[in-house]
Every structure is written in C-alpha cells, then in structure tokens.
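Question (not urgent): is this output format expected?
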Amino acid sequence: MRKRVSLKDVAREARVSVTTASYVLNRKPDARISEETSRRVRAAAKRLKYVPNISARTMISRRSQLIGVIIPQTGSSHRLMFDNPFYGEFLSAVEYVVREGGYHLLLSGTGPYQDYSSIAQMRNLDGIIIVGTYPSEFLDELKKTGIPVVLVDAYIQDHYFHTVSINDRHGGYLATKYLIDKGHREIAFVSEKLRDKGVHHQRFLGYSDALEEAGIPLRKEFLYEGDVAYHGGFAVAQEMVKRGKRETAAFAVADIMALGLVNGLRAQCLSVPEDISVIGFDNVPLSTMSLPEITTVNQDIWEKGSQAARIVIEAVEGGAKRDVILPLHIVERDSVKDINLD
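Got this back:
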C-alpha cells in the first residue's frame, strides 16, 4: 500500500520549511513568500500527488471547509425532491460557488422531526444553507451553535439568519393577473397542501389578491392539491375532468406541476391552450421542452443558489448579515390563450 504523501514530503521536495509549504498550499494571504518559492512548492505538490489532510487542517484552523445544504422534507413522500428541476439548478449553482471559494458541499434532507443542529455539529459544518423551511424549535437550537445560516425561500423573521428569497406573493399575483388580462375569470389554483408561512401559501395569497382586484370571487372548487411533482400535476388534470372542468385557465405553483398538468389534460383529450390555458412558476428548462411550451413566472434559480453560497461563505469569514430579494417577471410562451380575441 502506497504511503500517503505528507506536507513534510512536499517541503523536502521543494527545499523549503514545512511552515512555508503550509503557507503556500493553504493560500495564506498575509504570508510574504516569493512567487518563485510558491511555484516550487506547488510544483512539488503536483509531482508527489499531494492531497491535503482535511482532518489535520480542521484541527489547526478549527474549520472543516464544509458547507451544508439542508432540504427539509415537507411533502408527502419525505424524499429529496430531485424530480423537481428547481433543486438541480439551485444545487449546481451552490456547489460551483462553494468549490470556487475553497469549500466542499454536504447535502442532507431532514425528516419532519429531525434536529438541524445535530446535523451541523456532527458534521462540523462551517456554514449552512437551508431551503424552504418553516418556523420550528430546531431553528432556535441551530442559533445556539453560532454557525452562520442562510435561509432560502423561508418566511421567518429573525435577525440571526441571512436570507435569499423572492416575493412569492407578488409572483402569484403576476401569474394570475396575466391570466385575467388574457380574459380568464375561471382560474384554477394548483399546489401542494398549503402551510402557513410557506412559499406556495404566499403564491396563493397573490392569486387571491389578483382575483379580488379584478372583482372575481374566490371559488373553493377551483383549488386543487397534489404533490409538487410531474405525477402531482398529472393527477390534478384527472381531478379537473372529474369535477367537470369549468375553468378556462390554471395557475400551477411550479413548472414541474404545470408540465404534468398539460400532459394530464392531453391524456383526457383536452388541448392546451385551446380548451384550457396553463401558467407555471420557476422557468426551469423543462418548461421549453413541453408541447406547447409553458408560459411561466421566471425566477433566477442559478442566481438564487449563487447568492446563498456567496453569503454563507462571507458569513463564515466574518461578513455582515445580508438579505437578498431577487426579481420576478413573466415569460410568455404558448400555453395561455387570449380569450379576449374570441
């Protein structure tokens, strides 16, 4: 078995002290080391195929170089929701920024009663990004650890946490008003089971705001529940037909649900947008792979992940509290019919 190359081996190969080799390989900005010496140390490390001992580095620096991303499982299946493309794009952005910053990513889901602080302490995380959580005693416990935390898409008012979000209520309003402006008054709302202080509840409030502004009554029979997944939207289409499909349009709170809804309606011999219009939310790439392509509310998912990663790294390194709200806009495609023209 090949012996692990140590920092001493690199220093010996580069003809420098162990301290100098450590300064170079750990990129100490305050160390006064010539470019020639730095080049020699890096070349020696490359020749010897040196891999830093993270455990030793952690003991010295008291940092693990690990950033955790926690996705609480709040849906019916309690599985990581990677069938929703939102998470793939978000996590790709986080991983890229974290890696460029010299950190590594640890991903974990949590069950409904799992303590976030235990994950943070067991893994010795330097910082944490939590996506889509709700107020809980576990967040209070997490504050006691002193670990920097960025909440993404969480309606929690607490000065301890950094936040990255969008105005979901405004997004729901934009989607519904767009349908109203196209002449629709019988508009379905398609979502998971709503929870207070959740993003989909906020989108529902925006839906309600737009209806009220237009003088359209909120009708409970136009509210549909399903998993935020392709099969959830598909099942809602079946339920729509079962109820008699009196709607001319539907607002689905995520593009993955909208895609399932479009295909589910087609399976019921209904055409989008001729028989019913559909608007989604997120603007994930799948929304352009549908027939018809799906009109949607755009949020910049890559920027959301990038901002969360940059903020948590800044916080680990002593940065001030930050709260970021990203903009929204409608992307017009082919899934909404203007019935004013009929």
